Amino acid sequence: MVVCHKKHYLLNTQLKYASTTDCVYFSVGIVGAIFSGVGWPGLNILFGKVVHSFVEYEKNRASHGNDSAEVEIITEEFRAETYLYGGIMAAITVLYIIGNYTAIHCFQMFALRLMREIKKRYFASILKQEIAWFDTQNSGEFASRISRYCSLFTFKKHQQLFHHLF
Q: Which CATH number applies to 2-165?
């Protein structure tokens, strides 16, 4: 029950000020993270098949001894199988790299665009204060505090987003 509430809270807070473009960045980033996440198990399974192919090749070659025609056929089958697995591994690696790049880029764009919107709303709310309120504030301390809060908020948003998604 607590986990479900936490996920609901995460989506409400992350997407509260998001525009349609931000939601597209978020969605594409999730798809990229899925491609990236599926890549590792796929590579591990294929690596196991490549190792099995090597073992089978050596067993078959040893069992046929000096029969060069049979060894040549076994070698060609082994090469074809190895090339197939190598091509599949290369394709999965490319998908993994593209997925990682897409996820990182889209999540960063999502977070930066979201922070820009929150900062605009924050500064708009500051400008709506009565003029006397600014007389009570030390300008250097006030600007430093705003900058520090925005930097901290941006860092926390990035950290929260990546922590919950990965």
A: 1.20.1560.10
User: Confidence band (pLDDT; 50, 70, 90) for 11?
Assistant: low
**Single-letter amino acid, residue 63:** S
Contact 36, 96 (CB under 8 A): yes
Distance CA(140)–CA(115), nearest Å, equals 23
Instruction: Dig out the tokens for 145 from the structure.
Output: 């505090």
Q: Where are the domains of the chain?
A: 2-165
% of the chain at pLDDT higher than 70:
83
Q: How far apart are CA 92 and CA 105, in angstroms?
A: 20
3-state SS track over the chain: CHHHHHHHHHHHHHHCCCCHHHHHHHHHHHHHHHHHHHHHHHHHHHHHHHHHHHHHHHHHHHHHCCCHHHHHHHHHHHHHHHHHHHHHHHHHHHHHHHHHHHHHHHHHHHHHHHHHHHHHHHHHHHHCCCHHHHHCCCHHHHHHHHHHHHHHHHHHHHHHHHHHHC
Cα–Cα distances in angstroms (integers) from residue 9 to residues 88, 130, 157, in the given order:
40, 33, 14
Q: Mean pLDDT of all residues in the chain?
A: 80
C-beta separation of 39 from 98 below 8 A = no
